Amino acid sequence: QVQLVESGGGLVQAGGSLRLSCVASGTISSKNAMGWYRRAPGKQRERVAIITDDNKKNYEEGMKGRFIISRDNSKNTVYLQMNNLKSEDTAVYYCIFLSDVDARAGTWGKDYWGQGTQVTVSE
Questions:
Q1: Contact 18, 89 (CB under 8 A)
Q2: What is the mean predicted confidence (pLDDT) over 10-21?
Q3: E strands along the chain, which residues?
Q4: What is the mean pLDDT of residues 106-113?
Q5: CA–CA–CA angle 47, 89, 112 (5° rounding)
Q6: How far is CA 27 from CA 2, 36, 43, 99, 114, in A?
Q7: What average pLDDT does the segment 63-92 reach?
Q8: Most CB atoms closer than 10 Å: which of 3, 31, 77, 78?
Q9: In 10-121, which residue ranges form alpha helices assigned H by DSSP?
Q10: 3-class DSSP state of 90
Q11: DSSP per-residue codes, 10-30
Q12: How far apart (Å, rounded) are the C-alpha atoms in residues 96 and 78?
């Protein structure tokens, strides 16, 4: 089992920045990936970015540039730096942990989700 605790959400004006953090605890497999999804009001959940344990990053189209994902393996923590925020970035942001990742096959063991953190961008 893996537990995830997110922090860093809040209210920010358009053009501002926020940094989300997510700490994983429990049984952390060596081959893993962590990342972020979001769900905006009235929309389906969408992927924002994923980063593997060996620092390979994958961004959803349109996210790269303003959003930067990073991780600190010594702290089992993933970060999402969000810059130049827009009102359409308003959403609940969820942290995800993928265990036993086989990057070549594109498969993983289990996925774990955080409780979500609200990001609200005002005009």
A1: no
A2: 98
A3: 2-7, 10-13, 18-26, 33-39, 46-52, 57-59, 67-72, 77-82, 91-98, 111-113, 117-122
A4: 93
A5: 35
A6: 6, 20, 32, 9, 15
A7: 96
A8: 78
A9: none
A10: coil
A11: EEEETT--EEEEEEEEES--S
A12: 9
Between CA 76 and CA 20 the distance in angstroms is 14
The tokens of 97 are what?
């942990």
pLDDT for 32-46, tens place per residue?
999 999 999 999 999
Give the bridge partners for 42, in sequence order. Answer: none
Kindly state the tokens that stand for 34: 């962590």
Distance CA 107, CA 105 (A): 5
Indicate whether 22 pLDDT > 90.
yes
* 37 close to 45: Cβ distance less than 8 angstroms: yes
CB within 8 A of 111, min separation 6: which ones? Answer: 96, 97, 98, 99
